[in-house]
Structure formats: C-alpha cells, structure tokens
Amino acid sequence: MTPDNRFTDAALEQAMTEMRNDAVDDAVMEAAAARVWAKLADVAAQAGAAAPVSEHIRGCADFQAFFPAYRAGRLPKAKALLIEDHLHQCVACRRTYEGKVVAMPAAPAVTAAPARSRHIVMWAAAAAAVVIASTGVYIYMSPVGGVHQRAMVQALNGRVYLVTDAGFQPLAVNQDLPNGVEIRTAQDSDAVLRLHDGSQVELRERSGFSTSGSGNDLTVRLLRGSVIVEAAKRRTGHLYVDTVDCRVAVTGTIFGVSVGAKGSRVSVVQGQVQVTQGSAERVLKPGEQAVTSEDIVPEPVRNDISWSRNHDRYYALLGLQKAIEGVHMPDLRYSSKLLGRLPANAVLFASIPNLADYLGKVESIFSQKMAESPELGQWWSEYGRHVTAVLEKVREAGGYLGDEIAVVGVENSGGPVLFAEVKRDGFQQFLTGLNMQIAVESRNGFVVFGPDRNSVESLAGIMDNASGGFAGTPFYARIAQAYAEGAGLLLCADVSRIRPGTATNGMKYFVAEQTEVNHQAQARASLSFTGARMGPMAWLADPAPMGSLEYVSPEASGVGAFVVRDPAAILDQITGIAKTTPANVGAAEPDVQTNLRASLGGEFAFAVDGPLLPVPSWKLIVETYDPAKTEAAIEQLVAGYNQHPSQMVQSLVVTHETADGGSAFYAITGTPKNPLIEAHYTFRDGYMIAAPTKVLVTRALQMKSAGTSILRSSTFMSLTPRDHYANYSAVIYHDMGSQLAPIAGLLSGLAPKGAPRMPQLTNLKPMLLAAYSEPDSLTVASNSDLLGMSLGRLLTGDWSTGMLPFGDMAGTRDRKKAYR
C-alpha cells in the first residue's frame, strides 16, 4: 500500500468492528505467526543481522540477548526499534544495557498457552500486528520527529569515539552518528554534535550518550558526564534527556545536564524544562537548577556551564534574563478614565494595559546587553533580527496612547471600536504610515479608531463628555466590581443585549479576566443570571468536598469530577434511563430511576488512570448512599439492555465474588467476551469504584487507604487556582501530552508526506479548570492562559516563550507569589 492510500472514517470504523467481532481459529493464529517470523528472519538475513537467539521474544532475557547486535548496529530497523522501546520502558534492562547489572539467563521453553489465555493472545497478536505495520510505515516516512536532518559531528577538540562491542571507533568532523550506539569523549576532549532533529549537543570530556527515536520524539540517554543541549524548535514532539534517575523534557531550550555517582544535575540557560524524578515533577526556568540527590549541593548555573566553549554567550543570556525579570509588567488597574464616558447602550467592554513603557525598557536592556556581549550580538543577528522590528512598532504605537486601551461595542452598531487617551500628537499620522484602512477621530485628549467608519463616528461623542450615561447602569456596576478587585486583561459583555432576539436562557453578564502575578497567569470567567439557572447550567451544585478524587492516582492523565444537584434527573435527561427498565419488573418493585434517586449522592468522577492502549485504563467513582439499591439499578439496566442487545454485544452478564475480608466485587461482561466491553466494580466508604479490570479497582482502594491520591500530586496542586473557595463544584484536569504523543506520532507517520502534523496533540501542557456554582452565577477559573495567545508568542513566536515575561497582557498587584 502506498503512503497516499487512506481509509475513510466510516471504513476504518467498520474494519475495527469486524476485527473485534471476528473469532480467529488458534491454528490460523499459529500459521500467521510462523509466516511473520519467517518474514522477519528473511529481512534479518538480508540485512546481515546476527541470527536470532530465540525464536520468539518472550521476556527480558530474550531482549537482552539482542543487546550485542544492537550496540554494533547490526539489527534491522524494525527490531532495533523494538529494543529501543523496551529499553525506554524497562528499568532493569536499561541498567543491564548500561553494564550496571548482569544480564538475565535465557528464558526456558514455554509450553502452549492454556485455553483461558487464548483471548489475551488473540488481542496481543492483533495489537502487535497493528504496531508492526504502523512502525514500518512510520520508519519509511519519518525517521525522527518528522525532521530529516543529518546527525553528525560538527566540531571536535581531542578525541571522540563510538563505543561498540568491537571496541572504540574514532569519529571525525562531519562524520555521521548512528542511533542506539554510545558516543563518548576522551580525557581532555570535547565535541559539538548535531542530532537528527537539528538540536545541538555539546559533550564534555569523559562524557557519553546515545540517542533513540520514538514517534515524533527524540531521546538522549546521558550515560556519563555532562552535556549542554540547544534544543531545536519543533512543530511536533519533544526532545528528552534521560539519566539514571530523572527525565528532562524540552522544546526549543538551552540547558545543561550532568550525571555522576551521586545523581544528576539540571541547569537552565534559556526557556523552560520539565524535570521528572519518580512521580515528582518540577518546571525550571532560566537560571534555575535541580539536583536529584541531597548529597549534591546546587551551584550557580554559571559555574555549571563554565566548561562550555559557548560559555560567554550563555552568561550573556543569563544576564539578559535576570535584567528583564527586573522590569515589571504594568500594575493592576483599580479604576478607569474611559469606562464612565461610555454611552448607556454599551454592551461590550474590553480593557488591556498599554505596554509601551515595558517594551521600551526591554528594548533598552537588549541594546545594552548586545553592546556588552559580542557573542550575544552575533547570536541575535542570526536568530532575533525579525523580532526587533515588531517590538519597535508595538512600542511606538503605545507611545502615543494612555495607560489603558479599551474595545467598546454598543447595541445595533456596525462593530466594536478602540478607545484610548492620547499622550502626544501624531497617532493618526502613525496609523496612516502603516497603510492600514482605519478610521480615526481624535479630540479633547482622546482617540476613537477602528475599521468601520460608521461605528467610529457614532461613538465619537464619548470624547466630549466625561459622563456618558453608562455609570448609572447595572452593567457598569458589574465592571466596576472587577476593577475594584484589580484588572489586568478584562473582557465584559452584556449577554442579554449583545444579540437582541436571541434566547439567552436567563444569562446576563459575562466577565472574563486574566492577570499575572509573579509571572503566573490567573484566568477567571464568570457568567451571571437574571434568575434561577435552567437546563445544563443548573446541574452543578454549590462547591463541596470531593472524596471521589481520593481513588484517582497522581499519574492520571485526565480527570473530571462533579458535584450535581439531582443526579437521577440528569441521567434521565441525558440517556432516558427510565426507558431501560425491563418489562418483567413487577408493579411493586422499584424501577431504575427510583433506585438511583434513592441511592446516588450527587458526586461523580471519571478518570483516565493508566495506559490508553490496548484497553483504556478508565475509572468511574460514584457517590452512593445505598449500595444495594445502586446494585439493583445496575442489574435492571443490564436486564433492560438484554431485551434489545446490539449486534456487537449479544448480551451482558453481571457476576459477583466475595474477596478476602468479605468485600464483594462485581463484574459486567459481554458475550462474546470483549475486554473493551467489561467493567469491574465494588462499593466502599460511600462510593462505587469501577474500572475495566479488578486490578485497577483494587489499586484504587489501596491508594485511598494509603492517602497517595491525585490530591497529593504536585502537578495537580500547582495548577489549582488561587481564590477564596476551599472546594469545587467541578474540576477538569488533563496531562494528556505523554499519552497522546505516541498516538499522534503513529498517525503522523501513517499520513502521506506533506500532510499537516498535529502539534496540538503532541505539545499539550497540563491544565486544570475549576468551576464554582452559586445561585445566580457560574465561575470557571484556571492558572492557564484561557483568554488567548500570550503577547510574547503573538509578537515573536516560540522564540520568546520563557525569555520575555510578557505573560498574557496582564499586570501585578504586588511582588508576592501567586501560589500557595
């Protein structure tokens, strides 16, 4: 099949359904396995690879038997990729590969699998076939991260070697570098190497590392010594640096990593890196450092990178960052000279601070640092010239205007306009010089401008009168409340009047605000109502404790937890659950809805708490006051389904068993048996805990008892908004980047050349949204950028991320930290 052949979504769904429903005969499976193995053996023989040690790779011992051929680069690409993936997943084999422990003995012969494991074998074989096919297409089309660059030695001082089973092979400048083989510098030697994705690695004396690719990601395994990495800009995927006790994840960053007998050290020069050690995670910014052992004392980043041939440029970057951090963003605004001038029919008001003074100070610092450092000046001339022109235009435009710039809209207008104070003459001529089709009206120290001339002329009167009638309206009072609490970036709309004739379900004012305190974004959006909320807006209850989160692990990649007013009524609205009651239920026996209404407590949590493949590791936790009635409702639902089963699942069966200690565990399985349509659950401490396997349920119970849930996760807690609420009405959290990146990598590899990539999947950052329900309002808050692209990325693209603390067009009330 050529790379341009593609299935439609409908055809793919049909094919997957047929695969799931097809019962494959054991003899057919064995014959297929024999043909696949014979094909792999032929490919290995043609590539000159060593003969397989064992016919099948059954465990770690079989993987370890391939290590000598893997080090020497004699394995075919498909098998080398399997070895690299296993080394990435298995700590024991990685330590064996690095020579820290003795290899395991060869695995004994394995007899045929018993009948009860045949379903597992079938699913594993199907999954392996998909992975092998996908990997083959992926290797053919996109070796590493979708980037096709030559990995090579760029510069060399002394001696650098490839470390193979045959001995040390010296390398020269411009020589290619293979994946999966250690590259090591000798005493009094250093080297600069370029990787497949364009990243540059500077290797200190007596240091060694190897590289491997997986999907759109590239991993550098630092085996000894020190490296300084200038990570390439990426559309997709990440660069990882692994040591024996930590992992560093980056995109477009300059940082150093060292590993020794005591542990590892990570130092950041530019950008941000995420350091993971065990279950703990930490984000480092320029000038910050992390160590993995208490026996290693942190030292200044300058000292840690002093060995580099580029240390002068790195020193200049650190000094530049420190100087910029001393320039504060505009303070939060507690009043507005523009708000009171608006007409009474204003329905939209957005306000942002003028950043001209800030940008001017930043520009001055740049100029000073460029003059002080020839190395930084040369680097800037290569990578930052296009930024200067943009910064200058934005700074120059702001130089004509006051401290606040507003966007104003009124009822029945042609569109919003911009409104600001004028500090000096010439703004209209400045806009004219930019060749922009903008109408401008200016007088009395104010300016109104925008793309629609009629709107500009109709609102020109706000420049003539300090009191335009807006101050007497309830909408003004709501905006004034936001200013009283400190305004950064502010967006306010009168939803009930912004689109006359449109049903709003009682919605009145929408107010979204984003501020920044100590470079920490804080966003909040609130929707108020004229009366009682209706429909889905009325489902959430007031903030309350969420015991369901105690059953979710810190490694969960996605969580949604809710406290609702009437769970049975919601389920009835969503699924028509009353209709699923089986016809044979007697008149005196409670129906499904009655049982649920009497038993459900109103708290739900759903989590992706483990791998997504081959069977998604989901968890469902439901508060229940009466487990017996909840179980009765579940069995009624199953009986109701069995009266009208689908073609894929002919019927469902509920079974139960009593475990040690007297706990009852239940299972719902389908016929034919399918691990994707299987659920196990139990009841404990007022909750029903459900998952696709009994093992996951048991782990959830153990975690609750040990008190090691996601509520103790540093990543989760660092994302919680800072406000006066102690509980949530709802919380939605995701850290899906690590789960989706491999899938996106495979999909990208299967796509035709030139097809668009999926950076929105591979570069996802953790995020938490908190919702708070009150009788007449609903508020959503987050420490993430909810209101749009940050000003830094808007002006300069990815270059400025982590360097310029533009944040999100926001300000600071004081210099205190924005986190607990």
Describe the structure.
- The chain is α+β, with helices and mostly antiparallel strands and 820 residues long.
- It folds into 4 domains: 9-109 and 116-141, no CATH class; 152-309, Sandwich (Jelly Rolls); 333-348 and 403-473 and 482-487, no CATH class; 538-750, no CATH class.
- Helix content is 31%, strand content 26%.
- Helix 5 packs across helix 6 (91-97), helix 9 (311-325) runs antiparallel to helix 10 (356-372) and helix 17 packs antiparallel against helix 18 (592-599).
- The longest helix is centred in the N-terminal third of the chain and has 24 residues, at 118-141.
- The chain is flat.
- The two termini are 56 Å apart.
List keywords for this structure.
18-stranded antiparallel β-sheet, 33 strands, 31% helix, Jelly Rolls, disordered N terminus, 24 helices, alpha+beta, 15-stranded mixed β-sheet, 820 residues
Report low-confidence residues grouped into runs of 5 or more: 1-21, 23-33, 36-41, 43-55, 100-147, 756-763, 786-820
Shape: flat
- Percent of sequence in beta strands: 25-35%
What structural class do you assign from the helix and strand content? alpha+beta
What is the mean predicted local confidence, pLDDT? Answer: 74
Please give the alpha-carbon distance between the first and last residues.
56 Å
Percent range for helical residues?
A: 25-40%
- Mind describing the biggest β-sheet? 18 strands, antiparallel
**How many H/I helices?**
24
Rg computed from alpha carbons, rounded to a whole number of angstroms: 31 Å
How many domain modules? 4
- Count all strands and give the number: 33
